[in-house]
Amino acid sequence: MIVKLLKKPIFSLYKLTIDPKNQQAFLAEGVNNLITSYQNESGTLMMVATHEDEAGSVNYIFEMYQDDASYQIHAASPQFQHYAKLAQKVVQSKEIHKLSLERLHTSNQPLEIKGENPYFVRLLEVTVNHNNVKFLKNISKNTVANLVSSVDSNY
């Protein structure tokens, strides 16, 4: 699937903490939601889920939608409604970060990875004042760190 974006997509990071005893049910519903959404919703550009710890109690979900209409289609979907119902019961804490996509490099081949795999993600959170944003972008221009940023809307 090749999508030409005319404006920045909606890009979010969710940090969800659950009790490890609920991890299997949470994982099953989450995988169903992510895969079904990606396969059936053309405006759902990316969905990635991972966890911080072996028990799966601290979870990170990255979602990218072509626009708000695409997000609304996802939010109304049966698989998301089913997932949301479970999440309301098992999520103990939630953080939502709206991200601003700066640069994205992809191949023309769709990528779908399910189940146990050798891949890992390192998430580095950096806080800089507005005067240093340009400097940070410059030093990270050839790294994955430049893919996303969360910029304070006051600047």
TrEMBL record:
InterPro entries: ABM_dom (IPR007138), Dimeric_a/b-barrel (IPR011008). Residues 13-85 form the ABM domain. It holds the Pfam family ABM. Gene3D superfamilies: 3.30.70.100. Transmembrane segments: none annotated. Signal peptide: none annotated. This is ABM domain-containing protein. It comes from Companilactobacillus paralimentarius DSM 13238 = JCM 10415.
